[in-house]
Design goal:
Distance between the termini: 45 Å
Helix content: 25-40%
Strand order of the largest sheet: 1-8-3-6
Structural class: alpha+beta
Shape: globular
Largest sheet: 4 strands, antiparallel
Strand content: 25-35%
Oligomer: single chain
Order of helices and strands: HHEEEEEEEEHH
Low-confidence stretches: none
Length: 144
C-alpha cells in the first residue's frame, strides 16, 4: 500500500530534524522518501555498522537493542537513523522488525544533494541538530 503525498508530509513533519521546515520544504523531502517493506524478524540496522539511511515507521513495530538488550520499541510515526543523513558514524543500536513493517527511507546521498540545492533546508536541519546536541549534553551534565 503506497502512502498519499499528504500522509508522507505528516510523517516527515513529526520528525524533529525537519520541525522547522516549511510545507514546501517538506514536500521536497517527501519526494526523496521511498517506501519499503520489511518482513518480521528482519534486521534493518546493525549496531556498529556505518549508516547511510534514515527511516520513518509508517506501520508496524521495530525493536531497538544495544549490546543485545532491548532499549526501545518504535511504531508508526517514530524514526531511526537521522544522524546517518548528515554524518558517517557507526550505528549505535540494532533495529529489527517485530512485525512486518512499512517504512519511509531517505538516503544520505539523496539528502545531501537536496541540501546542496536548498540551503534553507540545510540551515534548518543544522539548527535542529545543534539544539538536539545541546539538549542531550545538558541532560547528561544536569545543567541548562
Amino acid at each position: 500500500m503506497q502512502l498519499r503525498r499528504d500522509a508522507k508530509l505528516e510523517l516527515l513533519k513529526g520528525v524533529p530534524l525537519f520541525a522547522k521546515c516549511s510545507k514546501a520544504e517538506l514536500r521536497r523531502i517527501a519526494i526523496l522518501a521511498d517506501e519499503v517493506q520489511l518482513d518480521e524478524n528482519r534486521t534493518l540496522i546493525r549496531e556498529g555498522t556505518r549508516g547511510r539511511e534514515f527511516f520513518v515507521v509508517v506501520d508496524g513495530v521495530l525493536r531497538v537493542t544495544r549490546d543485545g538488550r532491548q532499549v526501545s520499541v518504535l511504531s508508526a510515526g517514530d524514526f531511526v537513523g537521522e544522524l546517518a543523513l548528515v554524518t558517517d558514524v557507526p550505528r549505535t543500536a540494532t533495529v529489527t522488525a517485530s512485525t512486518p513493517v512499512h517504512l519511509l527511507v531517505l538516503t544520505h546521498r539523496g539528502f545531501l544533494d537536496l541540501l546542496d540545492q536548498s540551503p534553507s533546508i540545510a540551515v534548518k536541519v543544522l539548527q535542529n541538530l545543534g539544539e538536539r546536541l545541546h539538549s542531550d549534553a545538558s541532560a547528561r551534565s544536569g545543567s541548562p
